[in-house]
Amino acid sequence: MSKLVIVESPAKAKTIRKYLGGGYEVTASMGHIRDLPASQLGIDVEHGYAPQYINIKGKEKIIRELKSMAKASDGVYLATDPDREGEAISWHLANLLGLDVHEQNRVTFGEITKKGVTQGMAAPRAIDMDLFNAQQARRVLDRLVGYKLSPFLWRKVRRGLSAGRVQSVALRLIVDREKEIEAFTPEEYWNVDAVLSPPSSSKKFTARLAGTADGKKLEVKNAGEAQKIQQALDGAVYTVANVQRGKRKKSPAPPFITSTMQQEASRRLGFTATRTMRAAQTLYEGVEIAGQGTTGLITYMRTDSLRIADEAVDAAKAFITAAWGEKYVCPAKRTYKTRSATAAQDAHEAVRPTNPALTPDEVDKSLTGDAAKLYRLIWSRFIASQMADCQQDTVSADIDAAGYRFRASGYVVTFDGFTALYEEASDEKEKKETALPDLAVGDVLRLRELRPEQKFTQPPARYTEATLIKALEENGIGRPSTYAPIITTITDRDYVEREQKKLVPTKLGRVINDLMMEQFPDIVNVQFSAQMEKNLDKVESGQEDWREVIDAFYKGFADELAKAEENMKDKKIKVPDEETDEVCELCGRKMVIKNGRYGKFLACPGFPECRNTKRLVQSMPGACPKCGGRILLRRSKKGRVYYGCEKYPACDFMTWNEPTAETCPQCGSTLFKKGGKSGSLVCEKEGCGYQRALAGPDKG
Question: What is the value of pTM for the model shown?
Fold first, then answer.
């Protein structure tokens, strides 16, 4: 008889089977096998919040097979994922198969490699009841909130809506940011830049007006002030008053945890959090690598920990030495402080390659698509974290002219260090610095150009997935494993839309948020939610009883719900329609955007008298260069955005380049943006050929 090892997925089972060999049978539960009932609350609120678990519909065959295999085996090992959800699946499997939850039959694998599987099998333990109770507490809490609040929203707004403990806070952050943007009043200011050259060189550099020569700060608020300064500087002598030289070092970012991996994949690769986690799951569970067979390429991807095993550090340093030389290896062991609130969350390592010597180029021969891109990101981030600092020589200069002080700064890289491989992307536009020419105090500089430039203060940026995940993490809302489903839920419910990469609340989202703010202030309170997370973490570390945590929350929540029902008796909230410029050709009214079973569409607001509907299309600025018709945003079968004429098929104009509101100075046709930030504006009128850089001289 063989021993039975149960994991969640067939891919993971296949990889582990290869390492265990004879004497073991490895099978998959296909995720959760038991859960709360879908059609009812399933929580006995009156008796200790006891959950009423049932077998998941559609899992009957798997359950029969698992019972049969367990009965025929010489022992069962529960090898589900090493986190709260995995612990819960193991607990349910133990109960379903009649196993003792106190028996040492639970094994976990930090990585699905020969070493990781061998170590895991050598250290079986009992099911961690604190970890299971932490999952159970979250499941019960989310069920109570969701199943009590959602019907309230159905009655007061419309059917099909939902509210949740974490999703409601995420929605509030997005709506609050939108309100900040709407309330923002831009303020005018001016930059005054001097383009200068040293006396013995033609190399130009830019210095910006910083204040007066006696050290007072100066703010230029309008064109009049800028003009006065420009007049005062007419014919002025620009003299170097002070030069400061220094050295600085730049250290690499730490290896990934779940949230930073999601953020960086969003910034660099344009991945949603869900897409990132799907690719990471594939890399963890194992893929077929040429010459090595099936192997797990990364450590477990749901982690808050920045801890790295010593052997992984040694392997990374050996690779760095071979690839770049010993001077590129960080001379000391890098340690990073983990933000994790509990020891349980620090049980795993950071997300890293299981074999640092296995480069992305080698893996590319066996991997494709998202998994290959994400592996390159994880591998590069980890290897860079063990490399030497980037060394820079810095210089800043104060330049005086006609009683005003200008300032310029720059740097040169003296040793590239980790930047030879990888630098972390940023959500903010970084100030560009370049090397300054050799300058000495007393040098009289040549003025090449004086450039006053009008500017306006900018509102805060809308959230992207990356910045929302960062905000949730910084505020202690949710946990890394929940970020992807949170964002998916609020977009699927039509509370939030994606515009480019930005998350924008819909009219429905704003109505729901305002209702929640008014009637359920605790649920959408950031501090309250963060404290709730801390209490749940205490359950995980064995410091709190899960029922007491639920009870403390539920009593206040039940009171809020009762008050809300009373406050809104006989009231129903109407979600305002979004009016468009499209005119109904049947009755002349402006059509509105509706949300239906198959997505958004245009409808006449005169329903039921007028039942006219149309497919929703997004108009772009400019006009078709062939026939002058509207340009519409369209999507290919694979979801790629392109732009075409509204009169198709009569007019066959289409382009991948984005239309702009600018017109061609040669022919007056619409200009299209080609390429990214450093791309160009092009005219697509046949025979014109005009083109210019997005910022720079004409190429026409």
Answer: 0.83
